[in-house]
Amino acid sequence: MEVNDTDVRRERCDPDRPAHPGVFLTREAGKSDHQPAGLSVDFPVSVVLPAGGTGERTGLRTPKQFCSLLGRPLISYTVQAFERVSWIQSVVVVVAEENMDLMTDVVQRFRHTKVRAVPGGSTRHRSIWNGVLALGEGEGEGAVVIVHDAVRPFVDEDLLYKIATAAKEHGAAGAIRPLVSTVIATTSEGYLDHSLERAKYRASEMPQGFTYDVISRAYQRCSESDFEFGTECLHLALQYCGTNAKLIQGPPTLWKVTYKRDLAAAESIIKDALSRSACVITGGSASGAALAGALREAVGALGTELEVVPDLRGENARCLAKEGNFILVSVGPSRPSEVEALLTELEAANRALLHPLVVIWVHMSDSDELSVSGRAAAVMDLSSAAKLRNILLYGIQLHPSKDAERWERSVSRVAELTSVLIRDRSPALVGQLLQA
Ligand SMILES: Nc1ccn([C@@H]2O[C@H](COP(=O)(O)OP(=O)(O)OP(=O)(O)O)[C@@H](O)[C@H]2O)c(=O)n1
Ligand SMILES: O=C(CO)[C@H](O)[C@H](O)COP(=O)(O)O
């Protein structure tokens, strides 16, 4: 993945770089692009997201929670994962004093609605305790508090529900995963002292849930040494409240972004999720529909499901709300106005707030009033305007052929290019007219 390059990663992580350049990145407050799972709880649930660390282990200047993944800081993805859950009432994000403005900016730019930022402490435990204190007894009484590292962006509603309900019942609950490696103890001279029986142990992950009473009592009673060196909230609940946490096996996606490579891995997971489906707009012509049909099979085989519609009018407008990737098929003379119209519709539908949209203009014509260089210039010009709307515009020129074999080859090249563009969202190819 190209983001392994240090300079590129530094550039992507620069919080001063505008993550989204346009003013068109809007989304109705409180709404999200995820389907609710239909779960509900009959007690208040609040969340504390510790985000006050410096991310030393990444080796980057920017704390990892503010590093940008596809133009959006990691913390915004984590916040969104909680905000989209209807039964979660409020999210307290704990950030270092010097990053308060940055966090306020993230909240405003990405229209987060349930979030409040409070100052962090010198260790993770101190930050979490600040977050719990910020919830306050009034908000917290009879409530469950979910604690989740801000740098674990992939958490789903189903697990949050299991953690919240188990915490309500048992006082504390936490997610676990099987150990990948065996845990060993070493002597001070660097020799093996003993090893633990791997099958008996689990890795403790996040999220964790507590009744407000348990988590606040645990922090009130714990020692300075716990605050300074402790790594486990469930341990504090056991030691200071006698509460044995219920443990729940979570999915592998719970991992914590710790090293620089984890940022690239997280971006890759986000890209995968965004490339699962796309909408092909054929313009209503028979040859456009034939190409779309062939593409649907070929692109489907590469992992992206295509929905084919003649236009985005009436019922078909649902694609505007549903999809993040669009393939516009033009047959005959180039009409940049068709692309402009699609960009305007996407902007009006407010679909580019949280992720950049991909639009691929597939142009199929031999004879055209525009020369190849004229078409390439048109794609480049349109792409600059699209970028301001957080839309990545790419062009593909398809040369039709009456020879069945050549036609099939061209279609499979369009399918491959389409898949790569949707999957990789390469900034370097934005505005290019690729040949199929
Ligand atoms: N004083 C601190 C230290 C950590 N955290 C948060 O705790 C979570 C998990 O900690 P970790 O992965 O260790 O983050 P860092 O401490 O930032 O990383 P490092 O140890 O590499 O510096 C992160 O969301 C981090 O921001 C916090 O809120 N306050
Ligand atoms: O897994 C966890 C709790 O059980 C924490 O995420 C973990 O302890 C954080 O530790 P560190 O700050 O050292 O990465």
TrEMBL record:
It is an enzyme of class 2 (transferase). The keyword Transferase applies. InterPro entries: IspD/TarI, ISPD_C, ISPD_synthase_CS, Nucleotide-diphossugar_trans. Residues 1-19 have a biased composition (Basic and acidic residues). It is found in: Cytoplasm, Cytosol. One of its GO terms (cellular component) is cytosol. Its EC number is 2.7.7.40. Transmembrane segments: none annotated. Homodimer. This is D-ribitol-5-phosphate cytidylyltransferase. It comes from Cyclopterus lumpus. The lineage of its organism: Eukaryota, Metazoa, Chordata, Craniata, Vertebrata. The gene is crppa.
